[in-house]
Amino acid sequence: MNLHQTLFRAGCALGLALLVAGCETVEVTKSSDAKAPVRKVDFARAPELKELAEHARQFGNEMFPKVCALFADPEAKPPPRFDVIFKPLKSQHAGEAYFETRTIYLNTAYLTNAPVDRDFFDKVFVHEMAHLALQHRAWRWSRSHFGWEEGLADYAYFKLIGTNGVACPQC
């Protein structure tokens, strides 16, 4: 038996095991609209956040084009589509979220340990979409223009959503 046959059989066995275990819910959803910016939302590691995951898809599809238009930089080549993954984050990404190339990771440990404030979630999500639109590097804190990149990402939130009572300078 070659490697491909072995992997195929292992995949079939795993699929059968999940079926037998009664795992009928699909926790990874893909967009049916090929032009929607949010390609995939994966909340398999936090099924209790299903409602927030659905909001992330809708809000991301609505706001990502606005974020891209806000910066309209001919040098930046934002991805046309991106994924959203809810998962517990490791120590180097202990905050609410981070991004890599075409994926936004949202910290399930943070989101499940406190009541989720939708306004705060939207701020974090727009902030990460701004990083994607501007194609900042994921390991940005080691770079000299870290403050500039973070400032631009925060600007996107304040410009597109508003302060919602948070004291901030005029945008």
List keywords for this structure.
disordered N terminus; 46% helix; alpha/beta; 171 residues
SSE pattern: HEEHEEEHHH
Reported for the largest beta sheet, the result is:
5 strands, mixed
Average pLDDT works out at 74
Distance between the termini: 63 Å
Beta-strand content bin: 5-15%
Helical content class? 40-55%
Number of helices: 5
Low-confidence stretches: 2-27
> What radius of gyration results from the CA coordinates?
18 Å
Number of strands: 5
Write a concise synopsis of the structure shown.
The chain has 171 residues and is an alpha/beta fold. Helices cover 46% and strands 13% of the residues.
Explain what you see.
The chain is globular. It has 171 residues and is α/β, with parallel strands linked by helices. Helices cover 46% and strands 13% of the residues. The N terminus is likely disordered. The protein has a five-stranded mixed sheet with strand order 1-2-3-5-4. Helix 2 crosses helix 4 and helix 4 crosses helix 5.
List the helices and strands and how they pair.
Elements lengths: L2 H18 L7 E3 L7 E5 L7 H22 L10 E6 L9 E4 L2 E5 H6 L4 H17 L11 H15 L11
Parallel strand pairs: 2-3, 3-5
Antiparallel strand pairs: 1-2, 4-5
Helix pairs in contact: 2-4, 4-5
